[in-house]
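Write out a record, focusing on structure:
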Amino acid sequence: MFAFKIWGNFASFRDPLTISQNLSLPLPPKTTIGGMMASILGIDDYFEDNDYFNFGYSCVILNEIRKKSFSQNYIEKYTTRVGTKITAYETTIKKYREVEKAKEKLLSLQQEKNKLLTLDSLKKSQEIQLSKKPVQIYKQLKLLNKKCKILQEELVKWENKKNETFIKPKPTNRELILNPYYLIIIKDFKYKEQILKHLINHSAIFPFYLGNSEFSGNFQYIDSKIIEYKIDKVNSFTTNAEIIDFSFEQKYSNLTMPLKTVKDRQYKNFKKIIFSNKIINLKEKIEGLKIELLLDKKLKEFGCEFI
């Protein structure tokens, strides 16, 4: 068993059950914590490891959950092989420049064509001096007409591509957690020895972020010890809703948490939990850990149920 705390300015733990809206879970699910530990270890193929998520996970909410909602525009449809809005924008700008160059070239060819037509008319009035020009002029006109036709087709193609690149964007609602702060407790982790070295030395192979790559986070190892293996008080969440000793002065919420991520980021093995920012009292003892640790310069005890 080992513990570490995570925190930052913002976090977003997307609810995998939502589709059109990016709603955030109030605490990081087991799958997100697994991704965080993979970032610390520098493992990028953990989705394909069937044993990776076979660890026990518990979480304690250390700061009041405060959320901020806002609307954000996304590109509704990307072009083929375009992964980001920035890439799509740059691609379209490039196409615009191609169109402008094609238009300039077409105008130049049309002017040249008009000049040749003028020469052709001169040839009729000066047949002797320009007796060799008709065949040459005819060939040039034929070539120019062919080029103009190709350019016209290119212009139509570019205009169609431009229209396909940007579909009218639509606003999407997003939720962010303000000042996230959590204590994470892990047991029976496959790479315990390796990750302890990184946690103690505060080092990570890959960037560490809180749910989304734009929300950088921090982490710190917390030395802890086990006091008991049976608990009747849990911090943050429990799966044993039927034995909760509910208090009217306390707020309880439920959520469905994913426990495993497989290839192509598909979520599996969902679990329903009840959580609260205060201690949840149980009517009987369950399997869990009561741990003691020094947190924010204070010696504290937490009851942890694992999923």
Residues 85-165 form one domain.
